[in-house]
Write a structure and sequence with these properties.
The complex is a heterodimer of chains A (about 475) and B (about 400).
Chain A: H1 7-19, H2 34-41, H3 49-71, H4 73-84, H5 89-96, H6 100-134, H7 149-160, E1 167-171, H8 178-192, E2 197-202, H9 215-230, H10 240-249, E3 252-259, H11 262-271, E4 280-285, E5 295-299, H12 305-318, H13 322-325, H14 329-339, H15 343-352, H16 358-363, H17 373-386, H18 390-398, H19 409-416, H20 420-432, E6 437-440, E7 445-448, H21 451-461
Parallel strand pairs in A: 1-4, 1-5, 2-3, 3-4
Antiparallel strand pairs in A: 6-7
Chain B: H1 7-26, H2 35-49, H3 56-73, H4 76-87, H5 94-110, H6 114-130, H7 134-150, H8 154-168, H9 176-192, H10 196-213, H11 216-232, H12 236-252, H13 256-273, H14 276-286, H15 289-293, H16 297-313, H17 317-334, H18 337-353, H19 357-371, H20 378-400
Classes of the chains: A alpha/beta (about 475), B mainly alpha (about 400).
Chain lengths: ~475, ~400
């Protein structure tokens, strides 16, 4: 039921389905209704697709008829006698103890009531399915996207399209907003119910052991994550062949986020090819492999000046830095020059301006076009680190031990040896400075850090050299 | 000069090792799934700690606490190398090193990397024996036996189990859980070797020990295996009780795949008894949407095959054919000629019932050809003999017709 048809159109479709109750071909199926698709999935699988679809359509109709029967039994009987039991008109009217014209009138009401009952079921099923799919995503780290409306439209179309492209690669510098962009696209794909499954895999940071610095390490992460999803974690790592078979039977959208290395990205894009169609796979990576056939590549650039200004003001407002939000374009433009329009860098600089005058912060930062991105980040992170309170510094160090799903406050309380007041103050400080990502839910928050923050802490702060 | 690793960070890692060990130790068998959310953070702590020599003992303790989660959540591929790295740390105590080798061996075996697993078991045993560590020797023999059992090397597996059992008479401090593992291993190997009285005895002891040590998951495993042994020994009532108890425990623990395994065993038992409606009900209970969403094709195939068999037994050939064809499709996908041969033979019987003799002959011939690949397998020989007999009957009928 992808198109919001009128009630009359739906009634027509349902009448056609009732008329086709005993058929074995593909006529009169309610294939695009989610309640029918779900009936089919719960069925014992058969190789006869039409038979399965008919069974699924009939089951959904039966459930609707049961609902009608609870409220108006005689109306439900009108449909059952005619379409399910295939009684001739006169016999059906006799069974109902009414004249043929009255029976026709009943039938009309009955179809309307059945349609309403099925629409109600469909609405509930769709809303449940959307909630269930949204749970597969990590919490978003943005309130609103800036400067990517064109990209959003283009990529959304590619992801929602029924055919190719099956593999998409989104590349761009660290902190440019690849994850946020994909998150927004996936959320809109969920709302459209284009896919039955959403699988979000975050590839772990370049690991601390040699073994994981190989394609084999990525392969293990990938297959384990898929096995966890496909079998609810009950089955160990799955062979590639079984994963491929699962993908052939399911409409899935897979996101493999944060692939750092060019070798890994190239290998991944080749490796996922057998999984595609009907599934689509999106890979985000800082690295852009050489042109690969049949891969839709989109390179994400820094945001333009107008969007960057709007972004700075929005972020300053939500960070309670009203003076910055009210600043003129001329006053804000140097932030863009120093950060090159990189969203994470902008957030970090705006965060710095919470503790020091903007002019002082800017005077200390090199022009973005004069230094490499890594150098720019190192510089910004150093200044951010120096401006933190000692408690916030300690808490940030402990975040090096947080995995992709983050850690909960009880871990941080122990790791820092703070009391609760100290800990929440440090968390608030770090969140406002964009150095801490909030995951989990309002009732059970968890905390994580961006990969660039992690790299900075590892190298510059704890001096972790392997 | 390499800069010193930050002292405060070292302290934080030390805290994390203790925190995760205590957190995991406090989780019971109903809460195993909560490990999934924390796994990446725990792994990070382990990885950092493996490089900090002052944390060697603590990281081994955390790995030990993590093991039961890794095993039950099927995460061996992700963790086995960390155990191997821990086992190779230079200043580890012999007892800890033996333990790490032993656990690494188990994980490599579950990942079907048997050579590496064997090597770890050998090291585990050597460190234990050289240092007079009886409990560690017992553990090494038990896990080595389990690895050999996975390789279908049942007699060798049994020998390791017997050695472990012998050593328990020397050790006074062996925890009940270790003793339980030995009895399960001995029960499994004895069942596989046809020593059914012995198998029943071992598995009954395992159940009793699991009860005493309050290990529900292992109790369910022991009960399910005891059911198989009892069933093979013809003690049907006992087997049924075992399965029902195992099923109740598995349902309490929300372990869907284990529940399906028990239901499959129960259906076989009812089928053997000729109580086909009950067998069919068990199979329908096992044939859940959960199973179909999973990639556990082996169990899907087994259920379809058994449903087909039960339906043929009840002269319901058209329904049986539907399930048998599905099983055949799955066995082909799984590249399992032995089971495929059995199911194709069953399909032949279904065709005989609907008098589709040409199709039946074709099925029996295929079945015989597939099963001829397994001349040393008793079950294959038995199934093949049935197919040959059915084929001969059909041929003689056609000859006389």
């Amino acid at each position: 039921m992808t198109n919001p048809d009128s009630l009359e159109q739906r009634e027509k479709a349902i009448t056609a389905a009732l008329k086709s109750w005993h058929r074995t071909d593909s006529k009169g199926l309610l294939e695009d209704w989610l309640i029918v698709q779900q009936q089919q999935r719960d069925d014992l699988t058969s190789d006869n697709v039409d038979e399965l679809r008919r069974l699924a359509t009939n089951r959904a109709l039966l459930e609707g008829l049961d609902e009608v029967e609870k409220r108006e039994p005689h109306l439900a009987h009108t449909l059952r006698y005619r379409y399910l039991d295939q009684e001739v008109e006169q016999r059906a009217a006799d069974l109902l103890n009414v004249s043929i014209p009255t029976m026709y009138r009943y039938r009309k009401y009955a179809v309307r009531m059945l349609t309403m009952a099925l629409i109600e079921k469909e609405t509930i099923a769709r809303s449940r399915k959307i909630d269930q799919l949204l749970l597969q995503l990590p919490s978003p780290n943005y309130e609103q996207l800036f400067g990517v409306s064109h990209e959003l439209k283009k990529l959304k179309a590619a992801v929602l399209k029924q055919g190719a492209p099956w593999r998409l690669l989104i590349t761009g510098l660290g902190g440019i907003g690849k994850t946020s962009l994909i998150d927004a696209i996936v959320r809109s794909a969920i709302e459209s119910l284009r896919y039955d499954h959403i699988i979000w895999i975050e590839i772990a940071h370049r690991a601390l052991t040699e073994a994981d610095n190989t394609v084999a390490g990525i392969h293990t992460q990938l297959t384990t994550a898929l096995a966890g999803y496909i079998t609810d974690g009950e089955t160990p790592i799955l062979p590639d062949q079984q994963i491929t078979l699962w993908f052939k039977r399911n409409k899935a959208l897979v996101v493999i986020d944060n692939v750092e290395d060019i070798v890994d990205a190239t290998w991944l894009l080749q490796h996922v090819w057998p999984w595609t169609n009907p599934a689509k796979v999106i890979v985000t990576s800082r690295a852009c492999p050489e042109a690969m056939q049949h891969v839709y590549v989109h390179s994400l650039d820094e945001i333009g000046e107008t969007d960057a200004l709007e972004f700075i003001r929005h972020f300053a407002r939500s960070n309670n830095q009203q003076d910055l939000a009210d600043a003129t374009d001329v006053q804000l433009r140097p932030i863009i020059e120093r950060t090159g329009g990189n969203p994470l860098a902008i957030k970090l600089v705006v965060g710095l301006a919470a503790s020091k005058p903007l002019a002082v912060v800017l005077a200390d930062l090199p022009q973005a076009h004069l230094v490499k991105t890594d150098e720019m980040y190192r510089h910004i992170y150093r200044r951010a680190w120096q401006s933190l309170s000692p408690d916030a510094q300690t808490l940030l160090k402990s975040m090096l031990l947080a995995g992709g799903k983050g850690v909960d406050p009880s871990f941080l309380l122990g790791a820092t040896r703070f009391n609760e007041t100290q800990m929440w103050a440090a968390i608030t400080e770090l969140v406002s400075r964009s150095l801490l990502l909030v995951r989990g839910t309002t009732f059970a928050p968890r905390y994580a850090i961006h990969r660039l923050t992690e790299s900075f802490l590892q190298i510059e702060i704890v001096k972790w050299y392997r | 000069m390499v800069p010193m690793i930050d002292g405060e960070f070292r302290t934080i890692v030390a805290f994390a090792l203790t925190y995760w060990r205590d957190t995991l130790s406090a989780l019971d068998e109903y809460e195993m799934h909560t490990f999934d959310a924390e796994q990446a953070s725990i792994k990070k702590s382990v990885r950092y700690a493996l490089h900090l020599e002052e944390h060697q003992a603590a990281v081994a303790a955390l790995l030990d606490a993590t093991f039961r989660f890794i095993q039950s959540r099927g995460l061996w591929h992700e963790w086995m190398q960390l155990f191997a790295t821990a086992a190779a740390l230079p200043d580890m105590l012999a007892a800890t090193r033996s333990r790490m080798h032993n656990l690494a061996g188990r994980l490599y075996a579950l990942a079907a990397e048997y050579d590496t697993a064997q090597s770890h078991h050998e090291h585990a045993l050597t460190f234990a024996a050289d240092n007079g560590l009886t409990v560690r020797q017992i553990q090494a023999h038990t896990q080595w036996g389990n690895t050999l059992y996975l390789q279908h090397r049942h007699a060798e597996a049994q020998r390791h189990g017997m050695k472990a059992l012998y050593l328990t008479s020397i050790s006074n401090v062996l925890p009940a859980s270790e003793r339980l593992d030995i009895h399960i291993l001995l029960g499994l190997t004895a069942t596989a070797l046809g020593q059914l009285q012995d198998a029943i005895g071992q598995l009954e002891q395992a159940v009793e020990l699991a009860d005493r040590s309050d290990q529900l998951s292992k109790k369910a495993m022991a009960l399910n295996n005891l059911g198989i042994a009892n069933q093979r020994a013809g003690l049907i009532a006992h087997a049924l009780v075992n399965y029902e108890q195992a099923l109740r425990l598995r349902e309490q623990m929300h372990n869907e795949l284990e529940r399906i395994r028990v239901l499959l065993n129960m259906s076989q038992l009812f089928g053997q008894l000729g109580v086909f409606d009950k067998a069919e009900r068990c199979l329908h209970r096992a044939n859940t949407p959960y199973l179909h969403r999973s990639a556990d094709y082996r169990h899907q195939a087994m259920i379809a095959n058994n449903l087909g068999y039960i339906l043929v037994e009840q002269n319901r050939a058209p329904e049986a054919i539907f399930h048998l064809e599905r099983a055949i499709h799955l066995w082909r996908h799984l590249d399992d000629p032995l089971n495929l041969g059995n199911t194709v033979g069953e399909l032949g019987r279904a065709y005989v019932q609907i008098e589709a003799y040409e199709e039946a002959v074709d099925c029996f011939e295929q079945s015989i050809a597939l099963l001829s690949q397994y001349p040393d397998n008793d079950w294959a020989v038995e199934v093949s003999a049935d197919a040959i007999e059915a084929l001969n009957q059909l041929n003689s009928r056609r000859g006389s017709g």
